[in-house]
Amino acid sequence: MLAGRRIVLGVSGGIAAYKSVELCRRLVDAGAHVTPVLTESALRFVGRTTFDALASERAIVSLWEGESRIPHTELGRHTDLVIVAPATARLLGALANGLSTDALTNVLIATRAPVVVCPAMHTEMWEHPAVVANVETLRSRGVTVVDPEAGRLAGGDVGMGRLAGIESIMAAVEVTLAGSGDLAGHRVVVTAGGTREPIDAVRVIANRSSGRQGHAIAAEAQRRGAEVVLITTAESSIPSGCSVVRVETAAEMGVALDNHAASASAVVMAAAVADFRPVEVTSGKHKKSLGAPEIRLEPTPDLLASLGENKPEGQVLVGFAAETSDLIDNARGKLAAKNLDLIVANDVAAPEVGFSHPTNSVTILDTEGGVEETGLMSKAEIATRVVDRVARLLTAVR
Ligand code: CTP
Question: How far apart are CA 2 and CA 29, in angstroms?
């Protein structure tokens, strides 16, 4: 559930800050991408080096550091959740009143992502009418408040106000994230990689697809709250958190699609499916001494075309077009012929594009005649563009 999700872990200055070190580790272990943002007073209790070492990104303390000119809005915009543990009375008050005084409060006010706060303070402070009112305000705005527990407090006092246990905080993060993201409640099937069609027991007909673009799309859909089924031939860069069906041939990919596609809100066919396969597969290894074999090929079924023929009402179907000439015309032809909602056209002959490159450049065509050219960017950024379009269509369907 947390795999691939981007989380800002805010730490404000209370003795319970040491527990946020453990929380950071738990979030990272669960697969989240964690960026710690510490207040100046948190640094009196814990060291930033600890967070630098444990988190996915270096800790941020000040607005005036780092490479981004506007880190608070950048972080706020790209995170899936902000959690503050511990949240002091000052932090709760600043958030309730829209006051931005440091990096953490800036991120909190600049984000539209769900926010979880985990207050920790002395009993008198927790029960102060101003704090009670601030907590009520935050709850009424949809902030998840993980109530503190009774127990031993700083200075040997005992009472209500101790930071909630790690398990309760992790559960609150999971529940908050489960209902968030523009693809929450949707199942998305993504195919990736090139199929391998056997010639004999050791040889195959394959293609150059690495599966990276499809995997990036699966990761992005999952990050945005979808339940993702990834049907792939590729071994590397498999995103965590998806349910993965490993296949080898076009026929096996067809069976996996039969099992999973009908119930999906969206199907993205990023796989490079072989168009032809050997009619006969030699049992055992064809020996060199027998001479060069003659390999007769037959067409494989067009999986995407049959998904298009049987497309359930409201399903968004996305194809890819790998072209070496007449990119737009060929892609537009496939969009119509296979009854697709979107097609992602790839000039696989262009430099730094397509198979086995970390970067890509695509043109996304839709049924209204829309043409979106992405320009050269990382496969993760391309995935964001593709998933944006899928999400938009799904929202329109609803
Ligand atoms: N595709 C498929 N089954 C096949 C071949 C292709 O589902 N047997 C899908 C691919 O996953 C891709 C789309 O169809 O999403 C287009 O694939 P592409 O190789 O670009 O085109 P083809 O339809 O195979 O036509 P051509 O090879 O002539 O360009």
Answer: 9
> Does residue 358 share a domain with residue 243?
yes
Q: Which atom of ligand 1 is nearest to the CA of 305?
A: 7
Question: Of 138, 161, 178, which one is at a domain's C-terminal end?
Answer: 178
The pLDDT tens digits for 233-275 are 999 888 877 899 999 999 999 999 999 999 999 999 999 999 9
Our answer on whether the CB atom of 271 is closer than 6 Å to any ligand 1 atom is: yes
Rounded to two decimals, what is the model's pTM? 0.81
Q: Which two tokens stand for residue 114?
A: 């769900």
Contact 107, 76 (CB under 8 A): yes
Tens-place pLDDT, residues 368-394: 999 999 999 999 999 999 999 999 999
* Shortest-distance atom of ligand 1 to CA 191: 11
Cα end-to-end span (Å), the chain: 24
239, 215 contact by CB (below 8 A): yes
Q: Are residues 167 and 231 in the same domain?
A: no
Instruction: Indicate the residue among 178, 202, 219 that finishes a domain.
Output: 178
Asked if residue 169 has its Cβ within 6 Å of ligand 1, the reply is no
Q: Residues 230, 368: one domain?
A: yes
Does the pLDDT value for residue 304 go beyond 90?
A: yes
DSSP 238: P
**pLDDT tens digit sequence for 16-31:** 999 999 999 999 999 9
Query: Are 264 and 315 a contacting pair, CB within 8 Å?
Result: yes
Instruction: Say yes or no: CB of residue 126 within 6 Å of ligand 1.
Output: no
Do both 15 and 98 map to the same domain? yes
